[in-house]
Design goal:
The protein is an alpha/beta fold. Helix content is 27%, strand content 13%. The strands form four sheets. It has an eight-stranded parallel barrel with strand order 1-2-3-7-8-9-10-11. Strands 12-13-14-18-16 form a five-stranded antiparallel β-sheet.
């Protein structure tokens, strides 16, 4: 069996911002197909496509109206099949984003539930409940939605009177499915098989710790804590024990297809839980193959913090038999260059150097790595989008720009000196759906490919070395003693990775030139905010890292 996913490098394609083939200002599946040679050149093993299903786009596709079709804005099923065929020819795996926690208000089943009334089988597919207080005017409980406001919305019944309330843990446009109803299990079986029959290699599962709610829907003991941050976890609405039965069943469905040709179909979950130990429960041998480990993404730029989260992941997650799924960014997070440094749009300050070092560190770690589109260009967050172009429902629900996600979703620059930077096909095209700043010209892919010092070449070289060196990818990691602000470890038989988290230079751990360095490295020096790889005889004769006693960085120099 080919267990390709265990050390794969997967590129996240946010479809509406990748490449527009039609000139309407929105990326589409034909644009993804046109961009596949670029991704093949980068060296990734596969792509994860953001939702492209029919949707009113209140949350850009994460409000699904039909799980078995393509929204016309992105193409059609024939275009999807052409994309799959092109990916197959290039040897690029394809993962789809599936959204099982909630759907769209426009989904036929929810519209039927509104029409059918209280107590109906149609309403039993969702969480409908009577309100509290006089006339049922208060929500059934005190839960908050992740995107702001209460988690309940009241409906108007067919007779025109105020009626029941329905649960939505994100926005009123996204009613939550009731996974205690076996109809939901059967429906998603049909969804999985529809796409597996079309040849997909697996699924990224949105809100994989969600789905089930406490059966009594009781009040939260600390509702304000649930509302403080989008990523906080209401223990009554997330991480319920029954969710693991769903993943066991989905794993069995995928294994049916694996048995046909020996290539595993992957399930990778968006799992937001408090600890690495709880995270590990989702990747037990009969559940999800992998789950994103967000602790690396959220760790501050600090050697001790990075070492702590990496060690916890290796101990708790790798011990399940899975591999850790590392990620530094995605479509919900501030771009790495900005998060690690100053938010200056020109990329000044330490942000770019730290982002380059973090990328090289991630690619050296055991397990799989996921790269969000534009990270390979070093794109900064667009922090000055006008209020009138913002589309994030967090902004619409709260009126606050805090934690909004539009800034990391601005369409990619491909070429040229002015917007649309090759994102759309010609001068007569519509403007990109989010405005691109003028400084994106400096980050366009044509410039990146031509400049061997660019982020793109660092990512490409790291990915290619990772694929060719037996020390990298799956396997063990052995920590070495290191000075303050420096992190150092070995992989396999003689590959050393060292990261200087400080702002000033440190002595290089080896006198010779590094195999790969995130910033220019003078002889004997590892500059601040820099990562480097060396090939060394530190682990000679095939000795495994666990058999080597830790040594100090000074002893290696």
């Amino acid at each position: 069996m080919h267990r390709w996913w265990r050390d794969a490098v997967i590129y996240q394609v946010y479809v509406r911002s990748f490449l527009d083939s039609t000139g309407d200002g929105i990326g589409d599946l034909a644009g993804v197909r046109a961009g596949l040679p670029y991704l093949k050149k980068l060296g990734v093993d596969g792509i994860w496509l953001s939702p492209f299903y029919p949707s009113p786009q209140h949350d850009h596709g994460y409000d699904v109206a039909d799980y078995r079709d393509v929204d016309p804005v992105f193409g059609d099923l024939d275009e999807f099949d052409r994309l799959m065929n092109a990916a197959r020819r290039l040897g690029v795996r394809v993962l789809l984003d599936i959204v099982p926690n909630h759907c769209s208000r426009e989904h036929p089943w929810f519209r039927a539930a509104l029409a059918a009334g209280p107590g109906s089988p149609e309403r039993a597919r969702f969480h409908f409940a009577d309100g509290r207080g006089p006339g049922g005017d208060e929500p059934p409980n005190n839960w908050h939605a992740m995107f702001g406001g209460p988690a309940w919305t009241r409906v108007t019944e067919a007779d025109g009177r105020p009626g029941q309330w329905y649960l939505h843990m994100f926005t009123p446009d996204q009613p939550d499915w009731n996974w205690r109803n076996p109809e939901i299990t059967s429906e998603f079986d049909r969804v999985l098989r529809f796409w597996l029959d079309r040849g997909v290699d697996g699924f990224r599962i949105d809100v994989a710790a969600g789905l089930f709610k406490h059966p009594a829907l009781p009040d939260s003991e600390d509702p304000e804590a649930d509302a403080r941050t989008r990523d906080s976890v209401n223990p009554l609405a997330w991480n319920q024990p029954e969710v693991h039965d769903v993943w066991r069943h989905w794993r069995s469905v995928c294994e049916e297809y694996t048995a046909r040709d020996g290539s595993e179909r992957l399930l990778v979950g968006e799992v937001s839980v408090p600890t690495a130990r709880e995270h590990a429960r989702y990747v037990r041998p009969d559940e999800l193959h992998q789950a994103f480990f967000f602790d690396l993404l959220s760790a501050p730029w600090d050697a001790d913090a990075f070492r702590k989260v990496i060690a916890e992941a290796m101990q708790d997650i790798a011990d399940t038999g899975s591999t850790v799924t590392w990620v530094l960014n995605n479509h919900d997070q501030v771009r790495t260059v900005t998060r690690y440094g100053e938010p200056a749009p020109e990329g000044s300050g330490l942000g770019p150097a730290r982002a380059r070092a973090a990328a090289l560190l991630m690619l050296a770690l055991p397990g799989a790595a996921y790269i969000y589109q534009g990270e390979e260009l070093g794109l900064p967050e667009v922090v000055d989008l006008p209020d009138d172009v913002l589309t994030d429902p967090i902004f619409r629900r709260t009126g606050s720009r805090a934690r909004i996600r539009d800034g990391c979703r601005v369409p990619l620059p491909w070429s040229g000196q002015a917007s649309p930077f090759g994102f759309t096909p010609g001068a007569e095209s519509a403007k990109p759906w989010l405005p691109q700043p003028s400084y994106f010209a400096e980050y366009a892919t044509d410039r990146a490919l031509a400049d061997t010092r660019s982020f793109w070449h660092l990512y490409r070289d790291g990915i290619q070395l990772r694929a060719s060196l037996p020390q990298l990818g799956e396997g063990d990691l052995h920590w070495l003693d290191a000075p303050p602000d420096v992190l150092s470890f070995t992989r396999g038989d003689g590959l050393l990775c060292t990261v200087n988290f400080g702002s000033g230079p440190a002595a290089a751990p080896l006198p010779g030139p590094p195999l790969l360095c995130s910033s220019p490295c003078p002889p004997g020096i590892l500059p601040g905010a820099t990562a480097a790889w060396w090939l060394t005889d530190l682990c000679p004769g095939g000795t495994t890292p666990s058999q080597v006693s830790p040594v100090s960085t000074a002893d290696l120099s």
